[in-house]
Design goal:
Length: 316
Amino acid sequence: MKRTLATLLAIALLAGCESRSNDYWQGYIEGEYMLLAAPAAGQLQKLYVRRGEQAEAGKPMFALEQESERAARLQAEEQLKSAEARLDNLRAGRRAPEVASLRAAVTQAKAALALSSSQLAQQQKLFKGGFIAQAVLDQAQSAHARDAALLKGAEAQLRTALQPLGREDERKAAEGDVAAARAAVAQAAWRLEQKSIAAPASGLVQDTFFVEGEWVPAGKPVVSLLPPGNVKARFYAPQAALSALAPGRTVEIRCDGCPAPFAAKVSFVSSQAEYTPPVLYSRESRTKLLFLIEARLEPADGVRLRPGQPVDVRLK
């Protein structure tokens, strides 16, 4: 009788376990990693994080050498200052000493023209009286014409100097040079910023792919970051359950060793069926899987150990 009751109890327990296992779908956790890289190549100058650390959003992750970019930004800033100085000079017009010099040149040209006009009048009278030759009169006329032309040139230079904005075409060209110089400064600053990468979101530093001093090619990831929101569960369900697994539906996730189940929402349902899931493990085989664990030693204790030395680890 006791053997019969024990047998019936064992059968009931096995049936209960099988019924529970049929209520779950096997799956695995997957993470969508952020691979942080710089658009330009360079030597890794500073690595601010180590794998396994938690990084906050905005925290510096790594920096490449920046000497060339700093020099380029400094050059662009100096060129901008020079272009702005030229534009200010055109807008301000000539300085007071330059204007005074041009006024004096006009006064001198007027005096020279008055003298040559008086001499020309005298030479004309003498030529009519037959006292001088034609060549002397021609020389006086040439001097008068020269002094008249010099006066017109001096007056034109004075008018140009008194204009407050200078020539319109020169001012527009100078404004274009200033705009181009400002764009060059912004571009140089952007290139400098791209040599130092910060965390775009908070998350776990999953891995680092270079050490300080190594050459990093352009676009090559240096740090792998896993934000909490990029963790998801992938599982496989039969066709009969698809109607209950619409996007937005809440599901429960359990794991070995977890004290309580987790809640998650369905975000994607495949439109194609798969006969064989890629990587799934039965409850019997999952206990045989081994996972890598890293434990860091204090510097004082690390110097006493050697690479390759066997150790035993247990919970403290």
